[in-house]
Structure formats: C-alpha cells, structure tokens
Write a structure and sequence with these properties.
globular
C-alpha cells in the first residue's frame, strides 16, 4: 500500500465505490432490524411467559436464580446466540467491505456464507474473548460500530441512576471509561485480524496490541477527525434545512407541510448515509492496516514492519 495517510486513503476508497458500501450497510441493518431483532425480542418474551417470569430486575434476581433456574439458563443461551449473531454481523461487514475494496464482486449471499464460515473457525476461547471484548469495548465505540443487536445489551438503568447520585462513583466511571477507551484503541484491530487473518482471539489481541504500540494517539486522532467530519456535515445540513423551513413556513400551509416532510426525509437519508460513511471508513482504516500478508507473522513489536503497513497521520 502506498505511503498515504490512512484516513485519507480510506475516504478515497469509500468514494470509489460508495454505492456498494452504503447498500451493504443499509441492507444488513434492514435485515437485522426487521428480522433478527424482532425474533430475539419474541424469544425473550416467550421464555419469560412460558416460565412465569413477570419481569427481570435487580429486585428479583435472587428469586429468579432460586425458583426459575431453567428460565435463567434459557436466557443465558439466548444471550450467547445474541453474541454469535453480533459476531456474524461484524464478520459480514468486514468481509463485505474487504471484498468491495478488492473488487472481488462477490454476491450478498457469498459474503454471508463467508461470515458464517468464520464462526466455524471460532474456538471457545476465542468466542469467550470476543464476548468480553464486545461487552467492555464496543459500548464505548458505538458511534462507529453501532449495531441494532448490540444495543440490546445495555447497562441497566438502575445502575446508571445509582452512579449519577454519587460523585465518587461518577469519577470512578469516568476513569473506567478512559481506561476502556485506551484498551479499545489498542485492541481495535482484533476483529479484522480474527476475520480476515483467521487468528484466534488471544492471538489477534496480542498482535493488535503490538501493532498499535506508540500509535495510540494516531488512531485516536483519526477517530476524532472522522467524528468531526460526520458531526459537522450533519449539523450544517440541519441548520440549512431549518432556515429553509422557516422561509417555507411563511408560505401556504400546504407548501409548509410538504416542505417539512421533504426536509425531514432528506435529514433521515443523510443521517443514514453519514452513518454508513463513518462505519465503512472506520472499517477500511482497520482493513488497510492489516492488509500486508506479513502481519500474520508478527510475534513481537521488534518485528513490526515500518511505515508501509501503518501509514502515519
């Protein structure tokens, strides 16, 4: 790969085939939102109803464990299925984006099958690491790696309410968030290494940790720039549409209403496009960082290739 800045190279790749990238992301999100999420919600309600569990809260955890162990096991099994589907989603995205960037022209279903095959190579230890990785890291990275499935795994509201009532707990939570953000950046290459290089979870973690050594700020800066681009463009469009609507409101009610509908539609479409842009460019940065075939041979930081594998920014 040429010695171009990683973010700039990723943005260029996105605009070379932006239609295919956006279609991939939007179609996948539609499938998840319209099929998988309702199935998970229905399965959860069915388990609760069949086992006679009225609700789940910290107030009835003891009761659940002592009187409804079958329900607890079924819910845990459903959680495992959820994480398996989350892995499939990101395996699908990484495989699909890599495929488009290489112009392999695989079909949607070929990419889906490849993502499923990645799960077949996932050992229990790797899946355990992957689960911990998603629980700890991705909630702090949902701007770039948002998922309708992952959003179902959230910190309970009562915990957040307890934390916000205690200043010391707030400080502790902030410190933990900073630590997790640092760990997340150091492990940011784990997913593409597992999916594209078929490395085990802990092996991928070690390689990612080595590959991002002394480059933490570089990755942080790229993420910040990507966030600024997305936020600034959305804000400018929102302000422009707002002033346009103010002018339309001085016209007839029919024109004002039609303008409001069109403006809202444009804003929603733009939000979908910019979300796809952020996700794809983020993934492309990771894919380009590991594209050199020698990355699989990394054992220690001393053996890392120089700038060619990791463009500086």
């Amino acid at each position: 790969m040429k010695k171009q800045k990683l973010l700039r190279q990723s943005v260029k790749l996105f605009f070379k085939n932006w239609g295919a990238y956006v279609t991939l992301v939007i179609v996948l999100n539609l499938i998840i939102s319209a099929i998988l999420v309702p199935l998970m919600e229905y399965s959860t309600s069915l388990i609760l109803q069949y086992n006679g569990v009225p609700y789940i809260s910290y107030t009835n955890v003891g009761w659940l464990l002592t009187t409804k162990p079958v329900a607890v096991l079924e819910l845990l099994a459903l959680l495992v299925i959820l994480f398996a589907m989350v892995f499939w989603q990101f395996a699908f995205l990484v495989s699909g984006i890599d495929n488009i960037s290489r112009h392999h022209n695989q079909t949607f279903w070929q990419i889906a099958g490849h993502a499923v095959s990645q799960m077949a190579h996932l050992r229990f230890g790797s899946f355990l690491f992957f689960t911990i990785y998603f629980i700890l890291v991705l909630p702090f990275s949902n701007v770039y790696l948002s998922s309708p499935l992952l959003s179902k795994v959230a910190i309970p509201t009562f915990i957040l309410e307890t934390v916000t009532k205690n200043a010391w707990l707030e400080i502790l939570l902030a410190a933990v968030a900073i630590l997790v953000l640092y760990i997340g950046i150091r492990l940011t290459l784990v997913l593409p290494l597992m999916i594209l290089k078929r490395q085990r979870g802990f092996e991928a973690a070690g390689n990612s940790w080595a590959m991002t050594r002394h480059r933490t700020w570089g990755y942080m800066w790229r993420l910040m720039m990507l966030g600024v681009i997305s936020l600034a463009s959305t804000t400018l469009l929102s302000v422009g549409l707002y002033f346009l609507q103010m002018n339309l409101d001085h016209q007839s009610s029919g024109i004002a209403f039609t303008g409001a509908v069109i403006n809202m539609g444009l804003l929603v479409i733009w939000q979908r496009l910019i979300a796809s842009f952020s996700l794809v460019v983020f993934m492309l940065m990771l894919i380009l960082a590991i594209r050199d075939d020698n990355v699989a041979q990394i054992k220690t930081p001393a053996k890392l290739p120089s700038n060619e594998l990791y463009p500086q920014s």
